[in-house]
Amino acid sequence: MFTSHSAGQFDPDRFLDDRVKTYLVPNPFVFLPFNAGPRICLGQQFAYNEATTMLARLAQAFEMVTLDMDANPEAKPPAEWAHGNGRNDRKRTEKIWVKSHMTIYANGGVWIKMKEADSK
Asked: Model's pTM, two decimal places?
């Protein structure tokens, strides 16, 4: 993908390779919680770092995390999903009912059981 350029020629894409498809999305407004463009949230990277740190500490404190299907029956997918619909057979394997509005969320929340790790 690299092309030859003279040092004096302006080409901001000269160092792009196949990673650009992974890290740049065609529409930055696809994921809205932090907005995009010139009005992007200043705390976006802080929020990502904070969430990552919190999840890492949570994972260190518990040795087992399982989905609790009995805690909230509302979170279960509709019974007709068990049969599939031909086009989207992935529905047959879903354990929670995922919905979307402005963002994706689980209907009724995701309820889990956690077993605390032995303190050593």
From this structure: 0.47
Tokens representing 104 are 């994706």
Q: What is the 3-state secondary structure (H, E, C) of the chain?
A: CCCCCCCCCCCCCCCCCCCHHHHCCCCHHHCCCCCCHHHCCCCHHHHHHHHHHHHHHHHHHEEEEEECCCCCHHHCCCHHHHHCCCCCHHHHHCCCCEEECCCEEECCCCCEEEEECCCC
Asked if 113 and 65 count as a contact pair (C-beta separation under 8 A), the reply is yes
- Report CA Rg, the chain: 22
Blockwise average pLDDT, block size 10, the chain, 120 residues: 63 74 70 80 92 92 87 80 68 79 82 83
